[in-house]
Structures are given as structure tokens and as C-alpha cells.
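Recap quiz, item 2
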Amino acid sequence: MAGGPRRQYNNPIIRWIEYRLPIVSTMEATLGRDMPTPRNLNYWWSMGMILTVALAIQILTGIFLAMHYVPTAEGAFDSVERIMRDVNNGWMIRYMHANGASLFFAAVYIHIMRGLYYGSYKAPRELLWILGVLLLFIMMATAFIGYVLPWGQMSFWGATVITNLFSAIPLIGETLTTWIWGGFAVDNPTLNRFFSLHYLLPFVIAGITVLHIWALHVHGPSNPLGISPKGKHDTLPYHPYYTTKYLTVFGITLIIFAFFVFYEPLYLNHPDSFKPADPLSTPSHIVPEWYFLPFYAILRAIPDKLGGVIMFIASVAILFLVPFLDTSKVRSARFRPIYKQFYWIFIADVLLLGWCGSQPAGGIALLLARLGTVYYFAHFLLVMPLVGWFEKPRAIPEGISKPVIPKERAGFTAETSPEAAE
Amino acid sequence: MKLNYYLKIIFPISIILVTNFAFAAGDAPVPPKRQWSFNGMFGTFERDKLQRGFKVYQEVCASCHSLKYINFRNLTEIGFTNDEAKFIASQATVPGGIDDEGEAFERPGRLSDPLPRPFPNDNAARAANGGALPPDLSLITKNRNYGPNYIFALLTGYVDPPDGYELSPGMSYNEWYPGHQIAMASPLSDEIVDYPDGTKATISQMAEDITHFLHWAANPELEERHSLGFQVLIFLTLLTVLFWFVKRAVWRKIDH
Amino acid sequence: MSSTVGKDHDKEASRRDFLFITAGAASLVGAGMAVWPFINSMNPAKDTLALASTEVDLSPIEEGQRLTVMWRKKPVFIDHRTKDQIDQARNVELSTLKDPQSDSERVQRPEWLVMVGICTHLGCIPKGQRTGDQLGEYKGWFCPCHGSHYDTSGRIRKGPAPTNLPVPPYKFTNETTIQIG
């Protein structure tokens, strides 16, 4: 945060507080709306705002669900049905919470894809990116734990399968798993602690989000051209320009969200979630929620238990290393003809892995999952470092405000010329 | 550049593939689609079907299957008056708790009571049904792939096994049951229920009515959800259009 | 500044203001409507409301006996009053009462007194329902927490309680059954 003189306020109450505790100016500097923002951000930059909204929806609906939910193996399933049937508007709050998780992940994946495409992780924003990957990890843990709470068949067996991953760790695996369960199988103690953690972790996410946004404010957001603003003529205040621009995205997101909540609330659900947990019978085909499918495919692609677990964790953890694996001097994929193509191969690969994860284990899906896993890691470990070295980037415009340099000089074609602001 | 375009075509196709995963389950036969009044954005339940379906439940299903999340008071939601629901409740005997001497006693049902269960617990249910547990029906249409279509197909799907098919003793052959061998014998037969409204109780009619009723039992909020959802969508659409105009007004003076 | 340009400018500015105000107001309305389901979810749920009324069979209660039943998780005192108790309750000068109310206002049938058995002072349960309980100076009920005395009509006569024991809504569904709530 910049030093220098603090801002003066006209409101006497704020002035009174500021003199004693400079919280308002600190918040404005770290999270505030005055951040000078490159004038050429496109709609892909709206996901940060959507994610904040998604977090707010989840916390709000979650708090009200927790008022009616009973975190015991005996009572959980019944209490969820009571929420759906008897609690006033309970069905709406629950369907919002269940589909809110999908909204959250959809937005976070777009957010990450945008970062990978436009090189948002590059200096000086490495820590911003790393905090983001940390948020992704905690989000995944929260979502997984939350999925266990309704205590249906999918909850129970999902919990069993995932907690059993820890038993692959040599020496301490068994002890660790028993510790996580608080017993000798997934049971009431497990459900109790999962509920406690599911209530805690969203606030951890909120806290790290503050750090994430603070880090964002230090150097401001990156932009589609990947060149830093060179002065006032290249930037706009975030408010009102980007607040209003992204409000439209917010509105469209809410429309899509409401459609799912009110008309297809179970589209992403699995029928087995509506059978109470039964420790004596495993559903014939268990699948995780859609947002875990690519990682689940990687887990199953490895024939070794411990190896599978390591790759499973590595598939997310490798994102931590992205700022250091990418050797290109150029941020935006717009000016990186070769990386850009690998980028789309990568996206297709993740979707392919997702499809593999949804299929029963074995057969063609397993083969494709193995190939997909190889490319997934090769993209980070080989493509990112090597393409950065060999690729000859396109000509980069001189500044955000005058991105179009004379065509003859730069050899721009209409197809590749970067759009100016918007 | 060509590759790039290819990939941009593959991208949406893959998305469709991925989002379709949920219902591409297993090798169970896919039951035919039926028209239900509760489908679609304006879908509602038909009260006469619900009430007939309740009669089928009471007279046919209830001897083996519980419906534990439905209470007598909920019957007013399917078009019974309060007094009718009270009367239906009073015909049932429900556990009344513990009396002053410490003995369990029974009493006539009240509106606040859940529908009585046919068996006191799962073991009793298994013992009475040759080892198979008749599932609770409150959530059955949500708990099966293809939901109502499956339930209807199952109830009308009892046929003779193909030649040479080895049927285990006590089992029945059903076209739509995964694996075809089902422990439940065909529950419906023509005129097994006497409809007070004069509707002819064919197997297909009863299957339709009970499926309708069970889908309500699994989704009692459906009608409210549909009508409220429509208002919410209209409001959000208008709001989004407003937001769009605000954005345009703010950005008017910015060259882009 | 040329007047036409100024007018156009004003027009545009006022149109923009109108847009902002409309959008802001619509957002506020939307937020308000979105908040209500959450607040409402804290109100009693349907299963709770279904238990909001209780039927009580009065036939086993003999004259002079008192019975406590639960209604909405609260104790309700039912008193089958004797002739003496009724007379005692009716022969009171209303002006001497702290919370003036005639006995006939408090009962539907003189022999049956039905009221919520929670002291109006700070929520304790007054004594008087069991044989041998302290009945207080007015032979009705006595709250041991802070010494409130109630008479045979459940009215406050002495002590810190501000009002009479409240009478819940109830009706006789037949000669010997009441439905409370």
C-alpha cells in the first residue's frame, strides 16, 4: 500500500473515525473502487465481481440453511427434507445453495481460463495468482465437505472414497484416515466435523479474498493487451466505468442462475443423492460433482493408489507454479501465436478429462483419460517453458490508448489486430 | 490459424458432452418420454390425478411402501378440504407416544401426523417381503434415473420373460427395471381401485395417476417454484436491460 | 455557450439521471424482495404451525382439580373451578385490581378457567397446579420467583407481575373437549 498523505474526508463522522483508526482510507486503498483500471478490460474481467457475488450468495444461504440443518447421521437427511418441505422458502434457499456451488465453480474456472489466456499471473502479479490458487484449493475442500452434509448415498460414498485417499500416504495413512473420520468409517463424528469445517472455511475464503483483492490493487488488473498503462490516458476509475459495465454481466448471471434454481434445480444433481446414506450398499456408478470431474479422471487414470493421489493433488497444485513455468516475456496470448493454439488444446483436454471422469471406469474413457493426463501435465511442464523460449511473438502495440500502429509497420492483419477498449 | 478454428468448434461440442454426463448413466434401458402436465416452465399438477393417485397409493402401494415425508396436513395441497383431510387422518391409527403408565398407545391420526408406515422398521419390512426392502416413495421420482417416465414405464412394464430367460423364484420380469428381475410383483391390475369420479381404472390410467401423485410427493414446491421463478426471471430481465442502458450512458463519452 | 447545445446537454444529463435513479430503485426493490424469503425462513415452519393447536379432553378432570397441558411448548393451566372459587373470583371490586378485568371476560364457561401458566413478570411457572402447592394469599396461584399472587381467576393481586395470566385462544369443540389455538 502506498504511503503518502491520507485522503481527507468531508463527512465529520468518517473524519472522526479516520483520525483514531484509519480504516476507511485503508479499505479504499486496498479494496476500494478508485483503483485506476486499464481502459480496455473486456467482459472476461467481470468474473472477480461475479465470484464475490457467488461467495456472498453461498454464505447468506448457508447461514440460513444452518439454522434448520441437523448435523447428525440420524437427523441430517430428514432435516434437509424438512427444509425442502416445511421451512418457509426453504426449498428456494437450498436450491440456491446447491446450484450456487456450480455457479461459483463455473465463474472460477472462467476466471482461471482468462488468467491463463491473458497471462495475468506474470510479474508483478505472481502472488495475486498464488493466492487465487490457494482460494481454489479451499473452495474445493469446502464444496466437497458441503456435498457430504445432506447425508445421501452420494454424500456418504463420496466422503468414503475421498477420505480413503489419505490412506495411500505411507506409514501414517491409516492413522490419518481414522483421525479424519473420528472413527473407523465415515460416520456421525465425520459428519459433525465436516459441518463445523463447512461453516468455517467460507470465512477463510472471504479472508484470503481480501488479500487477493489487496494484491490486485497494488499493480491494478492486467488487461487484454498485456501492456501496463503508461498514465492517466490509459486508465479509467473502476467506478463508475467498470461497475456499470459488469453490472450487465451480473444481471445475466443472475438470470441464468435463477433459471437453474427455479426450473432445473436438479440438472447437475445425481439421483442417488435422494437415497439416505446406506453404509452397506455402494451406488453402482458414483461420480463427483461436475466441477471435480477432470481431476477425478486424473485420479483414476493412474493405476497406482499413491501415485493417483499424488497426481490428483498435483493437478491443482501445479497451478501454483504457473508464474514460474511460463518463460515468455509477453503476457497476452493475443500476441503469442503458438501458445494460443496450445491454450485451446489445453481447454479441450480439460473438457475431455471431464467427460472421462463422468464415465464408468475402464474402456475407452480410461485410455483417453491417460492421454489427457499426459497432456495436462505436459502443458504446464513442457509447453509453457519451451514455447516461451522458441515462440516469436507478434508486434505489440505501444500503448493501451493507441493500440493500432500503422499496418505496414507492424504487419497487422484485420483478424489479429487487438480490439481497443471493448 | 486453421487449428485454432477447429478447436473453437470442438470447444462448444465438448461443453455439451460434459454437461450431458449426468443422465448418460449405465446400460439400463431408457424409458420412453411421456407428456406430464408438470413439465415445462408453466407446468402444474392436475388435482384430480393427484387425488386419484393418492387413492392408488393408499389402496395398493401403502401395504408395503411408506411415504414418510408426507403428512395428512399435506393432503390439503392436492385439493382435499381441511375436513376431508381430517377425516382421512382420523381413519388411520398412529402411534400416540407413551401414556402415564409408561405404555406405548395408539390413537386416531391428526392432520399433523405423517402417513403411517406399513412396517415398524426396515428389518420387519425385509422379513415380510422375502428379503427385499420396499423403498420409501416420498422421493422416488427424484431418486430414479428418468424420474416419472421410469416410474410409469416400470408400473406398466410387467411382461412375460423372453424365451429361455431364467427367472429366480419369487421374482418378476420387468422390461424397464435395470437387470429386469424385480422383487415387486406387478402391483396394478385393471379395476383394482374404484375411482369415485368414474374414471376407468386401467393399468395405464392408475400408473399415470400414481406417478403424478408421487412426483408431487417428491416435489411439493413445484408449482410455487414455477410461478415464482417466472416472476423472478421477468424482473431480472428488466433489471439487466436497465443495467445495460446505464452502462451505455456511462461509457458514452469514452472513445472505444 | 450556445443555448441549443446547452439544452441538448441538459436533456442528456437529465435522461441519464433518470436512468440511474430507475436502475438504482429497481435494484433496491430487487434486493428487498430477495431479503424477504430469508427473513421468512426464520418464522415457524409448516410442521411447527401444524402443532400450533392442541385438543384437550376435559372429561377426566373433576371439580376442584387442575390440569397442566402443553400448548406451543408452553404450559396451559386448566382449572375445573368449584362454586366457591367462582364466587370468590366474581365478588371483587374491579377498581381494586391492578389489571382490571371481570371474571366473565376471562372464561367461556364459568367452571372452566383456561390460561397460559407463565408469570407475566419474568416468565416463571406459578405454583398451584399440584395438590399441596402454595396457592398464595388469594387462593389462586403463587409465583415463587418474585412473589406474585394470583386469584382464582388468574388475575394479579399482589406482587411485581404487571398483568393477569393471559387467556389463550380456545373453543369448545363439544361439551367436554376444547381446542386451544
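The CA atoms of residues 94 and 116 of chain B lie 6 Å apart.
Chain B is about 40% helix and 5% strand.
End of item.
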